[in-house]
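Data availability (excerpt). The following record was deposited with the supplementary files.
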Amino acid sequence: ESVSRIKNNNVRVENTVDIHEFMKMIHKENVLFAVIDYLYGLENVGNGLNAVDVRTIGRDVFLKLREEDKEIPVYILDGSRGHVYTEKEKNTLMKRGVGGFIESKYFKSQLEETYRNVCCQAVMETLTARHQILTYETRKEFDEKTSVGRYRMNFVLRENMRLQFCSLMKLTP
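Predicted structure:
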């Protein structure tokens, strides 16, 4: 369902397991962000595995993308192949340029949330570059009684010397 909402915005979600095809998509298309299965190509997942240091096809794709285009946000698929990244592994990958993690069991909903966050970030950068934004804040809230989450983004815009206050909100069941 979430992927269809993204498609309703004329955004294509494409996937490939071929590194050359992936890089061709990156160079030819207007790519908002990439999700990479860092462990793709790993044959045996062991308990003592430090996933950051293993050599896999997914790791090679990530390194090639960071080498050729540092501007595209990259997210790592978490929970693939039965491996859940530790905090230490996540911190190491974040230092290497990962924008975040998408849990494989919640892939569709987290893909939509990532899409929304990347788009909001792009809007903020554009408004800031045009000197049209004065302040903004983002906040995630969760009401335990109703099990409803809310993502709120507040910002103050300056347009023709008139101030506007805007608030975007998304409710999740």
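Summary of structural features: Residues 27 and 143 are 42 Å apart (CA to CA).
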